[in-house]
Amino acid sequence: MVYVALLRGINVGGKNKIDMKLLKKVFEQVGMSSVVSYINSGNIIFTVNSHSKTTISHILEEAIHTNFGLKIKVLVRSFVDIKKVIHSLPEAWVNDKQMRSDVLFLWDEIDDESVLHKLVIKPEIDTVKYVPGAILWSVQKKYITKSGMAKLVGSKPYKQITIRNVNTTRKIYELMQGITCY
């Protein structure tokens, strides 16, 4: 099956630096195949047939700790999981000079629509939608400082979320599609 590993908090602000070429080798050493990385923020697409998503996460977290000395949370999503998010994502949502649109991938512990009640959402500014596995968020950049979602950092749910912008999420899906063609 095709999966993506979304690593939380690597190569951000000069912290938790991991070289993607070395990370790719580590994934291969622990049994992942067709390994492809996308940008430095920790998006690794791969195939593996013999493990659950939870088991894969544990294997990868341990391998990263052993090889890089870092305790990094790894969220694993299947091609089907990402496809569902993509199909729920409005086509008009982009990340450009006028709009910021993100996908907030949720750890299983908080993957429920009730997570929206734990967030500060200003409906007149933020467009927020829950889909299984993620929260979709869009805001006009001119209002970003007034957005309730801008206060996400430091909130309780934030520790169980990893964020990718919609452009990155769409590219991950495209790369996963390429691997499924083999």
Provide an overview of this structure.
- The protein is an alpha+beta fold.
- It has 2 domains: 2-80, 2-Layer Sandwich (Alpha-Beta Plaits), CATH 3.30.70; 90-164, bacterial protein sp0830 like (Alpha-Beta Plaits, 2-Layer Sandwich).
- It has 4 helices and 8 strands, in the order βαββαβαββββα.
- It has helices at 20-29, 53-68, 79-88, 166-180; strands at 2-7, 33-38, 43-47, 74-78, 99-106, 127-131, 134-140, 161-165.
- The strands form 2 sheets. It has a 4-stranded antiparallel sheet, with helices on both faces.
- Strand 2 and strand 3 form a beta hairpin.
- The longest helix is centred in the N-terminal third of the chain and has 16 residues, at 53-68.
- It is globular, with a radius of gyration of 16 Å.
- The termini are close together.
- The model has no long low-confidence stretch (mean pLDDT 91).
- It holds the Pfam family DUF1697.
- This is DUF1697 domain-containing protein.
